[in-house]
Structure formats: C-alpha cells, structure tokens
Amino acid sequence: MVNVAGASKTSIPYAVKHIHHHAFACRDSEETRHFYEDILGMPLVATVVLEDPFLRDGSRYCHTFFEMADGNALAFFEHTSLFKPDDFLARSGFHHHVALEVEGDDAVMGFKAKLDAAGIANEYMDHGVFHSLYFNDPNGLNLEFVTRVPATAEYDRASRLSARRDLAQWLQDRPSSASGGEP
C-alpha cells in the first residue's frame, strides 16, 4: 500500500512511471532561468526552440527545462506570438501541462488507442528525441504521455552542454513582442 505522505514504492508495475516534467508558460526565458537556476539552484539542462505544433503558423517558442534532484524537471515555454510580457496570461492548456513518462512507444500507442476508443481528442507527436501524446482530462488539465526513444540518451547529454548557448541564441533572435512590441 502506498502512503501518499511518505510516497513509498509498490511492486505493482504501473504503466505511468513518473512525472517527466511539469510545464508552464513564462514571460521571459532569461528572467525564469535566473530565478530557477541562480536563485533556486535548479540547473538549466535543456533549451529547445521549436515551431509551434498547434498553431502551425510558423511561430516559434522556447522551452527550457530545470532539473530537480530526482531527475524530474520544471519546464517553461516562452511563446512570444501569444502574449506580450506586460499582459502575460497563459492562454491554453499547452502552456500549462503535466508530462507523465511511460515506457516505450507501445505504451504511448496503447494509451492513444484507449483515448480514441473513449472519444477523447488527442494528438501524437514525434519530437525526434521524445514521442508524446497530448490530451485533456475531464477537468481541462492538459496532459502529455512522453517516452524516451533511442536518440534520447545522446540528446540528454548534448542538451546539458548546449542549454545555455541555445538560450542565449533564443534571447538574441526572439521576436520583438518579448520586449513589448507587437507580435
């Protein structure tokens, strides 16, 4: 039996392994990095700049990951086409989601089949170094099942080495809306 307060382990083989990351939108990636890395001591372990897979309009966002002692991460999205820093408000579940790690693409696809059978909208994405399935719970919470793929281990190693450089590049190239201009 699990003691929630003490969170002891059980021998039951659950499909959901643990929280991989809990993601939030942020106003400014550097302001966020400074707070989590310099003040709280959570190292920046990855910075990923991607085209928005939901808007599909060419807009990009910066996704930063800050590691905790147990290997899980808090993640933040700076998405300058959706907001200006002065009126910041996360506008979708994508900007606040919980990613739960599962073991292998078969597990992701198994959950996809269950969601499809239940009539629950979902979207599978191959991010190259992770595969993800996005969907909402009945309360509107945006969830992601994520699994590692063969490229993940090399990606993790390389991202630790490039996270600061990748963030600096994002800060240099980000659209002017991050400094208060129109998107």
Characterization of the model:
The protein has 183 residues and is of the alpha+beta class. It is built from 3 helices and 8 strands, in the order E-H-E-E-E-E-H-E-E-E-H. An 8-stranded mixed β-sheet has the order 2-3-4-1-5-8-7-6. Strand 6 and strand 7 form a beta hairpin.
The biggest sheet, with number of strands, parallel, antiparallel or mixed sense and barrel status, is: 8 strands, mixed
The string of secondary-structure elements, in order, is EHEEEEHEEEH
How far apart, in Å, are the first and last alpha carbons?
52 Å
Share of β-strand residues? 25-35%
What is Rg?
A: 17 Å
Note the total helix count: 3
How many E-type strands? 8
Shape: globular
As laid out across the biggest beta sheet, the strand order is 2-3-4-1-5-8-7-6
Mean pLDDT, all residues? 79
Class by helix and strand content?
alpha+beta
Name the helicity range.
Answer: 25-40%
* Poorly predicted segments: 1-6, 177-183
SSE diagram, text form:
Layout: E1 16-25, H1 29-39, E2 44-51, E3 60-67, E4 73-78, E5 96-102, H2 105-117, E6 122-126, E7 130-136, E8 142-148, H3 152-173
Parallel strand pairs: 1-4, 5-8
Antiparallel strand pairs: 1-5, 2-3, 3-4, 6-7, 7-8
